[in-house]
Each structure stands twice: as structure tokens, then as C-alpha cells.
Write a structure and sequence with these properties.
Two copies of one chain form a homodimer. Chain A contains five helices and three strands. Chain B binds a DNA duplex through helix 4. Chains A, B: Pfam families: HxlR.
Chain lengths: 138, 138
DNA sequence: CCGTATCCCTTATGATACTG
DNA sequence: CAGTATCATAAGGGATACGG
């Protein structure tokens, strides 16, 4: 395999690539939320629903099962009435917290810049459609 | 605002929350790929298409515009024929490289564990449907 | 070469109602 | 309480063809 240039991320393009898998998992709209909410400790289903309050039970279940399948959290059923099910991060899941935190911190440090950029972009967009075409590039 | 418990990630649930924005951006199937591919230096549209070879021009354009809008990369049009357009990470975009790298490294270290967990889970699944219902919980 | 325009399909997500 | 089932909608992504 080629070892220079962009090759070291070459396998990122492979659908089976580790990074792709992880980015797919954290790319999930709810997965990262759940993981970060569970950082504090185990929660039961209803507690998760309240915390991540916009999610429907169906979607929440899907996310939880996916995360459980990947070994990132455990699902513990207590044999009692009313039923109680706890979700808790596994050690593996906990190790994801750190990179996720790095991302959160990046986010908090740079959102303002991103938002400013968006405003600029959108303004230029708006101006562009008012201007006649055939205009010299930027 | 409450300062204990899960409150510090409380705003993670807010759709306007910085983290949500960032996770939405990197959650994009192609955005992180593009960013990481551009880590090496500027590339033109066709080069990006070749590198991220499965993506259609439409989708690639969408991703690039979104990233440009967020100030993560620049789009430079050269006034020549045939046309040439270069895409390059901005300093802001470059700062994303590090947290992304952390995630990649996590991925590479832990995929095997995740895959193993999946196999386990799926096996148990298969076994469960063969077993009669009303079985004592795990 | 660098896109845009269309059409189409799969998947994700949501609302709602119901069961163990 | 903790889900499952069903239906409906929308968003994402892809194939293809064409324009500047």
C-alpha cells in the first residue's frame, strides 16, 4: 500500500473501516447524547426519556439496543413490578467519553466562529442572487 | 441553572446547543471524511471525488458547501479553462483535526471489542428466539 | 472540469395507540 | 414502567443526464 500522501486515511473510505464504524455510531443523532447523559451514572428508561426529552420511546429503544449491541452500555432488567430497566455505560463505553468530551470542548470553543461564518456566508448568498450573473469570481 | 448531576450536559439536549451543532456536522456521513482527506492539503473537486470515490457529485457538493458555510474550509475558484476549484481547510477546520484524530484512534483501538460484542449479542439474539418466551430475565 | 437538475428509493424519525 | 406495533412523513443519499 502507498504510504505517502493521504494514504493513511485511505482506509477511512472503506465502509468496513474502524473509523467509519465509529463515526457512524457517533453520527447517530441520539447515540452521543445518550452516552454523555449516562456519563453520570446508570439511568432507567423513563429517566433517559425525560433527560433526552424529545425522543420517542421507539427511537430511544433503537439507540439503546444499538449501543448495547456494540458493548457500549449494559441493559439490566430488574424482576419487579412495576418493571425497571437500568442502562449503564460499560468500561468500553466510558472510554468513549474522553474523545467525545474533546469534541464537546471544541464545539464550545468554536461555535461562535462557526455561527459567524454562517451569517457571513448567508449574507453573501443573499447578495449574490440580487447581483446580475456573469459576475467575476469572488 | 442546576449545577449538579447531569446538568452540565443539560444543554446538550437543546437543539441549539454547540455540541449538538458539532455532532450534527460530524455526524454527516461524508463531512468527517472530507475533512480528514483535506488534512494533507488542498484538493480540487475531481480529486476529492476520486479519493472519496463512492460519493456522487451532488452529495459531495452539498457537503462541501455546508463545510464552507461553517467556515471549516475555503472554496477557491481559478478563472481558467478548464475550470479548477480548490478546497482547503481553514485554520478553524484544522483545529477540528485533533479531536477527530482522537476519535479515529479510539476507533482503531476498540473496533475489535465492538465487533466481538456484536457477535455475542447477535448470537444471544438468535438463541433467544429459539427459546420459549416467559424465560427468566438474563 | 465543475458542478446543477431530476427522479427515485431507502432510511430515519415522529405520532399514536396498545401490551406484558 | 418499559417497551412494541403500526402508520405516516421527511430527510438523506444515489443514479442519471445535462449546462456553464
Amino acid at each position: 500500500m502507498d504510504t505517502k500522501g493521504a494514504s493513511f486515511i485511505g482506509n477511512v473510505m472503506d465502509p468496513d473501516c474502524p473509523s467509519r464504524m465509529v463515526f457512524a455510531r457517533i453520527g447517530d443523532k441520539w447515540a452521543t447524547l445518550v452516552i454523555q447523559v449516562l456519563a453520570e451514572g446508570p439511568l432507567r428508561f423513563s429517566e433517559l426519556r425525560q433527560t433526552v426529552h424529545v425522543v420517542t420511546p421507539k427511537v430511544l429503544t433503537q439507540v439503546l439496543r444499538a449501543l448495547e449491541r456494540d458493548g457500549l452500555l449494559t441493559r439490566t432488567v430488574f424482576a419487579q413490578v412495576p418493571p425497571r430497566v437500568d442502562y449503564e455505560l460499560t468500561p468500553l463505553g466510558r472510554t468513549l467519553l474522553e474523545p467525545l468530551k474533546a469534541l464537546r470542548e471544541w464545539a464550545e470553543s468554536n461555535v461562535s466562529a462557526m455561527l459567524a461564518s454562517r451569517d457571513d456566508y448567508d449574507e453573501r448568498e443573499d447578495a449574490a442572487i440580487l447581483r446580475p450573473p456573469g459576475h467575476p469570481g469572488r
